[in-house]
Design a protein that fits this description.
The chain is an alpha/beta fold. It has 11 helices and 12 strands. α7 links the parallel β6 and β7. The model has no long low-confidence stretch (mean pLDDT 95).
Amino acid sequence: MRIVFPDGAGCVQHPSDLDPLRALGPVDFYDGPPPDKATLIERLRPAEAVVLDYSEMNAEVLRACERLRFISFLGIGYNSCIDVAEATRRGIAVAYTPDYGATSVAEHALAMMLALTRHVGHAFLSAREGRWEPGRFQGMELRGKTLGLVGLGPIGMEMARLGAGLGMRLLAWTRRPSPDRARHGVTLVSLEEVFATADVVSLHLAYTPESQGLITRALLERMKPEAWFVNTARAKLVDNEALVELLRAGRIRGAAFDVHETEPPPAGYVLRTLPNVLITPHIGYNTREASANMLRIAIATVEAFARGTRLHVVNGV
């Protein structure tokens, strides 16, 4: 079985990391993303199994991969990169790496929440530029405030634990409510109540066709003017045009984004220009611990496929 990494993988730190896969067959590892779709297709043509980072495998790309039977996506947002319906039609199994970095992403969301509410980014820039403005950066304590969580999968549950540790009141909405998810003092409520009540709203929801655009203008307009918004999940969950308008108008106090509709963002990216916005370059998942977990799980999915079994396959092929 020929295995191809068409766009590199940050979780591979040393060539020996791929030895378990080399036991299954030749491994083609390309160090970095392809410059264009044609190059991506050329890299993929000999592949029977692919370990994918962030390149887009749409219907056109999949149709060019005549030998391909298996894709393991490095991460959880496979719908952002893979046309799963087309893969299913072509008999290609699609797997992913769930729960590899729940703590890493939740800790990054917490870091962004603290940075927002204590103005860490702007205060750092002010001090670095030689100014001394302690009175300018009055923050907000999080203890006793309400944290609204959208999504209670592994990341959302970990964020709930961290919020509880700060002494925050926890409200959450989940697509699959159950007593087991109401841990760490979480109260399950409607989406509308999360947005209307929370002092900080934090997104921890997987991107799927059903969740695309779930966070509408109407929900965002329910937020309190002094509330903060944090997105470490996926940009396509949100009506970002409405969110930008509300941030510009001061209808929402501020927001932090680790995920963006286009990555890397284009020149003139509006979120770079807003004074009440903090952005990071999609690094929430990027810790040594999460990287090791991600590669371990991806290798396990390929090994399972080679044995004729399925592990973390999302399309039933």
